Amino acid sequence: HKQCAIVLVSLLKTSVVHAVSNSLAVHVVSEMKATSSKFATKFSLKTAVLTEIAIKGEFDLFCQYIDDTESSLKYWLGEFVEEHCNAKSQDSESTRIEILVEKKLKELIEHLQAKLKLTIVEQTALEP
Question: What mean pLDDT comes out for the span 89-118?
Fold first, then answer.
């Protein structure tokens, strides 16, 4: 029974991480689009990237952008996402990503609790 429990916990952990990660990506993108116009279109993203490159004043970054625009955009988008996620929330000392992870975990727990209650009710209803 102990080995079965260990496998079950491992599977559950993997499932929870997967569910939260998938949900987070959608919410982070949505939040970023809602809070900044630089993510509205590809053109506005390119403008934001070129602005960041100009602010940094590093000609090598501009050359990288010219040589491989798509890779450069992906890199900078990653930088923008990291900056957004690690920014402190206006309402607390927590970062945006910490608040979002906590919210998603609470939602997942509530969903699992509701499913568990339903399963228990169904099982007890089936008993003679």
Answer: 86
pTM for this one? 0.69
Whether 15 contacts 39, CB under 8 Å: no
CA nearest to 53, candidates 36, 72, 39, 35: 72
Tell me, what amino acid is at 15?
Answer: S
Structure tokens at 109: 């727990």
Percent of the chain with pLDDT over 70: 98
Residue 96 burial by Cβ neighbours in a 10 Å radius (0-12, 13-18, 19+): buried
Check if the beta carbon of residue 72 is closer than 8 Å to that of residue 45: no
